[in-house]
Known about the structure:
The complex is a heterodimer of chains A (about 425) and B (about 130).
Chain A: E1 2-11, H1 15-27, E2 32-35, E3 51-53, E4 62-63, H2 64-78, E5 81-83, E6 87-92, E7 96-101, E8 105-116, E9 120-122, H3 125-128, E10 138-140, H4 141-149, E11 158-162, H5 166-177, E12 181-186, H6 196-203, E13 210-211, E14 214-220, E15 227-232, E16 245-248, E17 251-254, E18 258-260, H7 263-268, E19 292-294, H8 305-323, E20 334-338, E21 342-346, E22 349-350, E23 356-362, E24 366-373, E25 376-383, E26 389-393, H9 395-398, E27 406-412
Helix pairs in contact in A: 1-2, 1-8, 4-5, 5-6
Chain B: E1 4-10, E2 19-25, E3 28-33, H1 38-49, E4 52-53, E5 56-62, E6 68-73, E7 77-78, H2 82-90, E8 93-95, E9 103-105, E10 115-117
Parallel strand pairs in B: 5-8
Antiparallel strand pairs in B: 1-2, 2-3, 4-7, 5-6, 6-10, 9-10
Amino acid sequence: xxxxxxxxxxxxxxxxxxxxxxxxxxxxxxxxxxxxxxxxxxxxxxxxxxxxxxxxxxxxxxxxxxxxxxxxxxxxxxxxxxxxxxxxxxxxxxxxxxxxxxxxxxxxxxxxxxxxxxxxxxxxxxxxxxxxxxxxxxxxxxxxxxxxxxxxxxxxxxxxxxxxxxxxxxxxxxxxxxxxxxxxxxxxxxxxxxxxxxxxxxxxxxxxxxxxxxxxxxxxxxxxxxxxxxxxxxxxxxxxxxxxxxxxxxxxxxxxxxxxxxxxxxxxxxxxxxxxxxxxxxxxxxxxxxxxxxxxxxxxxxxxxxxxxxxxxxxxxxxxxxxxxxxxxxxxxxxxxxxxxxxxxxxxxxxxxxxxxxxxxxxxxxxxxxxxxxxxxxxxxxxxxxxxxxxxxxxxxxxxxxxxxxxxxxxxxxxxxx
Amino acid sequence: xxxxxxxxxxxxxxxxxxxxxxxxxxxxxxxxxxxxxxxxxxxxxxxxxxxxxxxxxxxxxxxxxxxxxxxxxxxxxxxxxxxxxxxxxxxxxxxxxxxxxxxxxxxxxxxxxxxxxxxxxxxxxxxxx
Lengths: 418, 129
């Protein structure tokens, strides 16, 4: 068994983990080690060949591989170490990590601080329980993307996509550009899940029909998918009798949600937030265990990689300071809770003194609304569940939080004055 | 006489997603309504006159550690040339190694835009550990 001692260990070498590792090194941590189970750094970005990355962070329009290459290069230049093809098996609350790979065998790594950056996983057909046959040709969107853009396989020629989140829309476009016929994108909700930009540039540009308030009720096919049954659903999500029809296709792509990956966190005893599926974090991105930090999609599923990077920077800076014994505890702890119209709020704890950036997600599309956080209000011109809303708790706004231990953040759709 | 038509276009400049109603006479825009700002009008006019899109896809790589390399256009191309670009690229095979930024297709379809690699693909070594 190999034993190692590190200042900061980052679990996951995607956008969040690399940003954390880089910032940890820049902040003064002497040894920073990134662990990843894939054979290259970068997480999901190498397979996201579309543009639109980095518009906020770099003020440039980059593809996924271009975006992440900048972080991989920077991490190497700074001397961030990495172990690839390495699976973390266990994280102990005393910040000891058990991992394994074929070169070192079993590894025990003692860290002064740990950054959780495991990202998220796709929901599968099993999680949805779609009835029908079990033929080949059913893929998650991420798997299809990997097959097309890294492994060079075309997963199908006549495609139905279930789910209109951004991943589903982008994969629909990739299929169309590569010459496949995308028969439809099917969305169970009455509004599309993805950004308006993607509805236009991924679907309308290629005349791909979007079926709202519909779902896939069965998969057909003996060896390969031969078609899917779809049906309309009412506002409660129940199937509407008599609306069922069959769409012939050879491939069904599932883009039905992402789940933060936190088996390691849970096993370590870190408190998770049921509304995000990720650890409860404070504005330092510190979890409920001191010295263990979390960032990126492991905390909540982000819509922009630029925001993932930002959270990685905060976590990396905090982790390095903690390792060096320099992380100042929060002056106060104000617990943020989602109120009406708000699905979740991250970070869940702010100090109410130091400025903090808070992300939230609304439950339904809204226009001309107000976000109320106690005595603080934020005007909100428009928001959709697909796009996180950013709230800046500045020092001035924080003055209204004195003496508070809890703060409910809710959406007021009326009474907003411009 | 020119034909009078109306088109609706969703603005994507900001999350407001205004629905613009565009009145046209033949191919001429006579009125744009329903937008909250001038940035939106700029977008809508361009979207009708000459919609442009980033192009990205992959190209086949021979002798590389992976069989395809992602590519992108250096500038947006006309929306109606996306599939032509894709067909043009599908005919190519590029020998590894490829460096990010390498030109894969110079002046694709005469559009004045290059297609460049967006990642490195190392050559596959015969003697792998």
